[in-house]
């Protein structure tokens, strides 16, 4: 027990080694003005800026708002919330469109042949190439940003759902038929769960794409969110805030991916290769 | 009581065509099976025994001829003919309990009824401790027990088994064979059991139907009169084994010759 605890601590310390060295070199480079601190501020300056960005801008005033509302009134929290909101709404709309279409295309050859040519033409267009059109169609604000995220999430989920349904092992279909399953039962209780590993892979790629797209969309179509904030910081030459914003984007992305991973493990606890704990 | 056989296979032929080549898998099969009979279809691989089973199951209908069950032609698979596959075919996303309950849920039986039936089956097949496990956590023998329970839950009079114990080690295999015999006697099922193991067929069957290699025909019907439990070391058992071995080996060597012919032709 003692040994394994020690191994664990040593293991965790090892994980910090490389980042610490990088930080130290960075600190040394910018504090000795080898690199202009205007271009590359010191890590401590970035951290200070990040803290300032995170914390509320005004002093706490019980007359104006509750303590919780105040704590979450910092600029970073509001930006992260705006970005996350767009990702979630866009992703959910994209998934809600892609999932039924993918299930139908995977299960029915005629529907597949009907839709596949259009999808093959649209799919290679990067979502970012839709920016001009989305602004023409939806103006500025949330709608064009969400539209872009929908497109970013739609195709990975669609393609993986189609593949998932097509790869359902025929033996499950045969077993379910011999047990008397009708079409609806076959779809909901056999094909859909059998295709979940693929669908979840698609969802994970879709969220990743949505997160890339939201940052770009915010740089162009809206005036809040993490993507907007780092572009705004550039206008003022606040390189410390740019890096603090990038760091925040990274943290949010990591949180989303961890969440998706948890969901994946929960939904696939029956799957080989995932240990149930 | 009518004298109509339970399962009547009449003039069944099955031709598979791939490209311009045609393979006659079954050629004019006629077989009558009485209610409660335990039939083994025996033959080397490629003799069409699984094809015949699939025709009775309704997965793949015969090219000509028909299969009648209680006088009705088989058109599609159904819960009156429970199927046990060699690959178990359990739904990996369902627990053991859910797998067994699936057929009953399809029939919209009440929750209490399902719970009672599933509970009894779990007990009968010694699966109580595994009810909340997923198939991935079970051994091959356990999985096949669940698959048998899933079919028994349906109360179907007919059980179709496609080399169900082929992937199991010999001890587990003997174990499951004994359990199957117990179930067969208790529930008076009609069983069609596909195997390429001569010993397995003698251990289990009332009647062994030996099939020929392509085109699949019935080579011989062999009744086994020995009482259960049968002793594989007895003289009677071994005499029959010798007789069947000769029949099967003839077909196996034809299989080999055709294969080598095919490779030299290529």
Topology (elements, then pairings):
The complex is a heterodimer of chains A (277) and B (266).
Chain A: H1 2-31, H2 43-54, H3 67-71, H4 75-107, H5 109-122, H6 131-138, H7 142-166, H8 170-178, H9 183-220, H10 226-235, H11 239-267
Chain B: E1 7-18, E2 21-33, E3 38-42, H1 49-57, E4 64-69, E5 72-73, E6 81-84, H2 96-106, H3 111-124, H4 140-153, E7 158-162, H5 170-187, E8 190-195, H6 198-204, E9 207-211, E10 218-223, H7 235-265
Parallel strand pairs in B: 3-8, 3-9, 6-7, 7-8
Antiparallel strand pairs in B: 1-2, 1-4, 4-5, 9-10
Helix pairs in contact in B: 2-3, 2-4, 3-4, 6-7
Provide tags for this entry.
heterodimer; A: 277 residues; mainly alpha; 77% helix; B: 266 residues; alpha/beta; 6-stranded mixed sheet
Number of helices of chain B: 7
Largest interface: A-B, 22 and 28 residues
Kindly state the number of beta strands of chain A. 0
Main sheet properties of chain B: 6 strands, mixed
Spatial shape of chain B: globular
Summed over residues and divided by their number, the pLDDT of chain B gives a mean of 93
Oligomer state equals heterodimer
Q: Between the first and last Cα atoms of chain B, what is the distance in angstroms?
A: 57 Å
Amino-to-carboxy terminus distance of chain A:
20 Å
């Amino acid at each position: 027990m003692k040994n394994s605890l020690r191994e664990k601590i040593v293991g965790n310390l090892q994980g910090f080694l490389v980042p610490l060295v990088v930080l130290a070199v960075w600190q040394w480079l910018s504090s000795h003005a080898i690199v202009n601190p205007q271009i590359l501020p010191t890590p401590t300056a970035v951290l200070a800026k990040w803290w300032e960005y995170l914390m509320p801008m005004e002093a706490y005033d019980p007359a104006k708002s509750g303590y919780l509302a105040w704590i979450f009134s910092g600029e970073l929290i509001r930006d992260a919330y705006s970005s996350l909101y767009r990702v979630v709404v866009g992703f959910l709309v994209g998934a809600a469109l892609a999932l039924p279409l993918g299930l139908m295309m995977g299960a029915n050859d005629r529907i597949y042949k009907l839709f596949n040519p259009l999808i093959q033409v649209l799919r290679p267009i990067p979502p970012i190439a839709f920016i001009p059109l989305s602004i023409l169609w939806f103006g500025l604000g949330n709608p064009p940003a969400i539209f872009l995220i929908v497109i970013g999430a739609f195709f990975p989920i669609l393609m993986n759902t189609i593949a998932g349904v097509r790869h359902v092992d025929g033996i499950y279909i045969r077993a379910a038929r011999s047990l008397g399953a009708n079409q609806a039962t076959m779809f909901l209780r056999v094909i859909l769960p059998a295709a979940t590993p693929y669908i979840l892979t698609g969802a994970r790629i879709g969220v990743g794409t949505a997160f890339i797209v939201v940052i770009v969309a915010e740089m162009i179509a809206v005036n809040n969110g993490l993507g907007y904030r780092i572009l705004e910081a550039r206008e003022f030459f606040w390189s410390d805030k740019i890096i603090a914003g990038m760091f925040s984007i990274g943290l949010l992305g990591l949180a989303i991916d961890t969440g998706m991973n948890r969901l994946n493990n929960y939904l696939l606890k029956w799957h080989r290769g995932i240990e149930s704990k | 009581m009518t004298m109509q056989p339970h399962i009547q296979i009449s003039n069944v032929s099955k031709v598979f065509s791939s490209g311009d080549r045609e393979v006659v898998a079954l050629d004019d099969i006629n077989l009558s099976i009485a209610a409660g009979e335990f039939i083994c279809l025996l033959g080397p691989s490629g003799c069409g025994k699984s094809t015949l089973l699939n025709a009775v199951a309704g997965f793949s209908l015969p090219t000509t001829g028909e299969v009648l069950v209680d006088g009705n032609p088989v058109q599609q698979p159904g819960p009156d003919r429970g199927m046990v596959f060699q690959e178990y075919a359990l739904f990996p996303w369902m627990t053991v309990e859910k797998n067994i309950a699936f057929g009953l849920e399809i029939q919209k039986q009440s929750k209490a009824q399902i719970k009672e039936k599933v509970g009894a089956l779990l007990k009968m097949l010694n699966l109580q401790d595994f009810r909340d496990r997923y198939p991935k956590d079970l051994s091959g023998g356990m999985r096949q027990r669940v698959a048998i329970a899933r079919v028994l839950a349906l109360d179907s009079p007919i059980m179709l088994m496609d080399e169900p114990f082929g992937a199991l080690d010999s001890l587990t295999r003997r174990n499951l064979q004994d359990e199957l015999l117990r179930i067969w006697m208790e529930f008076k099922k009609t069983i069609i059991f596909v195997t390429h193991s001569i010993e397995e067929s003698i251990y289990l069957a009332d009647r062994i139907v030996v099939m020929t290699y392509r085109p699949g025909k019935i080579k011989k019907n062999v009744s086994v009169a020995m009482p259960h439990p049968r002793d594989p070391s007895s003289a009677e058992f071994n005499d029959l084994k010798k007789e069947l071995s000769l029949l099967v080996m003839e077909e196996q060597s034809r299989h080999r010759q055709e294969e080598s012919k095919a490779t030299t032709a290529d």
